[in-house]
Amino acid sequence: MRALQWLAQREHSRTELRGKLLRLLSRGPAGGAGPAHLALSDQAMLDAADPATEVEALLLWLESHGYLSEQRFVESRVHARQAKFGNLRIQQELQLHGFKLGAEAKQALKATELQRARDVWRKKFSAPAPDAAGRMKQARFLAGRGFPGDVVRQVIRVGWRGDDSDAEPGAEPGATPDAEPDLAEI
Fold first, then answer.
1. Is the distance from CB of 155 to CB of 144 less than 8 angstroms?
2. Which of 64, 83, 102 is the last residue of a domain?
3. What angle do CA 135, 164, 116 make, to 5 degrees?
4. Do 84 and 118 share a domain, yes or no?
5. What is the number of other CB atoms lying within 10 angstroms of the CB of residue 138?
6. How many domains does the chain have?
7. Cα(166)–Cα(158) distance, integer angstroms
8. How many angstroms separate the CA atoms of 130 and 73, rounded?
9. Which residues form the domain of 166?
10. Exposure string (b/e) for 63-79, b if CB count within 10 Å is 16 or more?
C-alpha cells in the first residue's frame, strides 16, 4: 500500500497524506501510476466510485492502527527543523499542516532559541560584520530563518561570543571591547 510506504519514509500530516493519495488517484492508469506500479489496495482505490471517501476511510484506518499520528508528526517536524530554524518558522510550518505547538513544546523551543540562533549564525558567518550593511545582511538571514527580532539583535550584538560576556575572541580575560556595534542601524 502506497500510504504505508510514504509513512515508513517519514511522518506525514493527515492533510499532506490526503493530498498525496488524491493526486495519486487523480492520475489514474493514464498518468503513469498504472496497475503494474500499484499494490492491490491502491488498484481498488482507483476503481472506487468516490476517491475522497476511500481516502478518508484509509486515513481513519491508518490512524486507528497507529500508523498515522498527529503527535508523532509534530514531534518529528519540530525535531527536524529546530537545528536550522527559529520558533516563528517552525510554528508557521506546522500551521500549514493544520497543527499548533503545545505550551510545553513552545517553552522548550523558547528556552533554546538564543543558542540555536547563535549556532545557525556561526555556521553561516565566521565573524561579526564590520559595518552596518553586513549586520543587516546577518539580521535578515536570521529573521528569514524564523528567529524573532530580540533574539536576532542579541546574536548580532554578541554573536561571536557564546555568552553575554564583554570579552572579544582572543582578548585577555577581563579586557573590554573598544566599542560595541551600533545596533540602531539594524
1. no
2. 64
3. 65
4. yes
5. 20
6. 2
7. 8
8. 42
9. 70-185
10. eeeebbbeeebbeebbe
> How much is the pLDDT for 51?
84
Q: Based on the domain organization, do 115 and 76 belong to the same domain?
A: yes
pLDDT digits 0-9 by tens, 21-61: 999 888 765 444 443 344 445 555 555 568 888 899 999 99
What's the average model confidence in pLDDT over 95-122? 92
Same domain for 23 and 81, yes or no, is no
Q: What is the pTM of this model?
A: 0.68
Residues 6+ away with beta carbon under 8 Å from 58: 3, 21, 45
Residues 56-107 pLDDT 10s: 999 999 999 999 889 999 999 999 999 999 999 999 999 998 898 888 989 9
pLDDT averaged over the chain?
79
Q: Exposed, middle or buried, 51 (CB in 10 Å: 0-12/13-18/19+)?
A: middle
d(CA 106, CA 74): 12
Residue with cell 571591547: 177
- How many whole angstroms separate alpha carbon 106 and alpha carbon 116? 14
* Whether residue 59 is found in the same domain as residue 88: no
Helix runs in the chain, H state only: 2-9, 14-27, 40-47, 51-64, 70-81, 87-96, 103-124, 132-144, 149-158
